[in-house]
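Bug: token stream looks shifted between consecutive jobs. Job 1:
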Amino acid sequence: MPTQDEPTMPSTRSGSRTSMRGLKIVLVPLFLTLSSSIAAAQSPMPQVAPGSPIQTLTLSECLQQAFQLQPRIAVQRASLAAAEDGLKSVEDLKVPVLLDPELPVRRRQSCLGVTAASAALEQVERETTYAVTRTYTTVLYAREQEQVARAIVERLSAVQDAAKRQLDAGARDVTSGDVNRATVYLRLAQSKQVQARQGVQRALAALKEAIGFNQDVQLDVPSGRLPVPNVKLDRMEIVSNALVRRSEITRASIFEQVACLEIEAQASRNLNKRVDTF
């Protein structure tokens, strides 16, 4: 029967319960994160047709292809061409102003329409440039993530192997809990590696969409690191450039001018009064 001087068993049980509780606190979030990572890694990936040649393009080549293949740019170019044809048709009209007092106003409106179509084309080209550049750098970023994940997997694999060898050799400072923790960390790193590998494929699919390629085209970019821009920002310079270069502001201003010209055209029509004599 244990005496008061020997409270060894209760303290041992309490310590084991505390260690198990702490182990659960550490492992449960890791298992939850691992499960979500595996579920994300098992999501469907974009499919490409096998056997098609791989096109390796730099950023400048991607931008050049996008300006040729992007449907949005083609649509705006067609709109600009239609606006120019409309302006030419109005200018070619040989009608006296006395017969059609609205004609000078319509010509000015057609000129503004060409300006608005040109601004819309410039906006789409700028948005396409941004989309291609962003997705291109996303590919580089995802590749760097994959490299980091691969290095972590290699280090954790070495740690797990070393822990197993020490446990099998009977080392006193290594327990099965240490091996299990190393295994959990290794599986989590492996899932992140799979996510990074799939992230590269998704970024390439987004780049193909930004360029205007079909999804069956196999696209790749040269290996390299993320660019480090050396830009010194100035708030007033940014605002002034935005006011000058934002095509939405130009188009809004043109819409206002067209509306004012429409009022002028209607007023010129009303000035042509007729008086019935009978």
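Job 2, same session, no restart:
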Amino acid sequence: MSTELLLLVDGSSYLYRAFHAMPDLRNPKGEPTGAIYGMINMLRRLRTELPTTHIACVFDAKGPTFRDELYPQYKANRSAMPEDLVAQIEPIHAMVKALGWPVLMVSGVEADDVIGTLAKRAAAADWTVLISTGDKDLAQLVDERISLINTMTEERLDVNGVKSKFGVFPERIVDYLTIMGDTVDNVPGVPKAGPKTAAKWLEEFGSFDELFEVLTLMQTKKVTRFPVILVGKEFWTGMVKFEQMIEFGVIDENDLQTIHFAETAKEVWGIIQEHYQLS
């Protein structure tokens, strides 16, 4: 059995959490620095607590993804990113790299998809994988090799932890999310079906497909929304093919060993530190 540990950080989740958790900090030039400080603190703490060699911080790339093609109204109700956070995105990317973390972004997909692909690939190679995130969508990845950790709440989810929190095991998280939808991202679900209802239905019927078949036969009013939900189900299962990771230059040919911590780039870090007055 391999002793390798891969630590994957949901960078997109981290930067939002850092921005909202920190006060309105600014350097002498008036530039916002709160999210930068927050990211530095969270990554340093994580690195101290989990000093593994194989790590990566994954961010969403700019531009639309395949989900926008599947459902054009995806995230249509979201407010624009705050300007003070926009101003800190590029400095955060540079800072994370300077601290020695590989930064991964793949066009056309989201950070979740890249994380899922790498996690499954590493698990298949018998590695242990720990994903640092607050995103419930990633609970679908949890198995005997993959677990989640939320550094804000100190919560750690293994297979039984997912069942305890959501009422379903990881292999049913996609069905669970499909039934509920996601109001934050404007993804439709079964009307008025919340977490308890979704878990109850899955316990009773076994899967979303079996539930859909039963409701179709019953000709309930809820069925009228299901064609949209069936499109929505594809949102929760996006994965980048490993070959695409190679094509995009994320990793070298079939080699997870290339995802590793590097020495802090002191010169680059010094420039960032001086500009933003970081400690």
